Amino acid sequence: MVGVEFDFVVKDSLQALELYEKIFEIERVEVSNFPRGQNEAVFTLYGVRFHMLDENPEFQLIAPTPENPKTSWMNIAVPDIKKTYEKAMELGCTEVQPVTELGNYGVSNAIFMDPFGYIWMLHQIHKVVSHEERLKMFEEKKEE
User: Fold this and answer.
1) Do 88 and 114 touch, CB atoms closer than 8 A?
2) For 38-79, how does the pLDDT look when each residue is reduced to its tens digit (9 = 90+)?
3) Which of 19, 61, 75, 77 is the most buried (most CB within 10 A)?
4) Cβ partners under 8 Å of residue 72, min gap 6
């Protein structure tokens, strides 16, 4: 078997999974139910595999915190950015960037931090704008 998954550590993977299921269309693959510190949850989101583990300092599994977030983030293209973002806000996530329309680029995006210290960037693609077109628009803005 070959493949790629994104692995990350949270204080409580069962609690985090519960939150993510309320925000996104998560498909559970494997979820354990042991005492906190020993759990893991494997799930897919839009075909991407994620493997979440409980914090366990004995094994050097240290979770980020809202005060000390990590520099990686999840970038998720969603069908309805406003609905997804509102769910995240209602469920206690922290706004980093509100839903922002980038009309010329054909997208809207938003960023939030979850209570476990992870950053999530949301995108909704309204129209496909080629890489070349985006570069041209960027160069034109630079010249202004």
Assistant:
1) yes
2) 999 999 999 999 999 999 988 788 899 888 877 688 889 999
3) 19
4) 119
pLDDT range class, residue 111, cuts 50, 70, 90: very high
Which residue type sits at 3?
A: G
- pTM attached to this predicted model: 0.75
Cα–Cα distance for residue pair 56/6, rounded to 1 Å: 18
Measured CA angle at 117 (ends 116, 121), to 5 deg: 110
Residue 8 reports pLDDT greater than 60: yes
- Strand order across the 5-10 sheet: 5-10, 48-54, 40-45, 26-31
Distance CA 141, CA 120 (A): 27
Determine the Cα–Cα distance for residues 20 and 86; give it in Å rounded to an integer. 13
The secondary structure element, H or E, covering residue 143 is helix 131-143
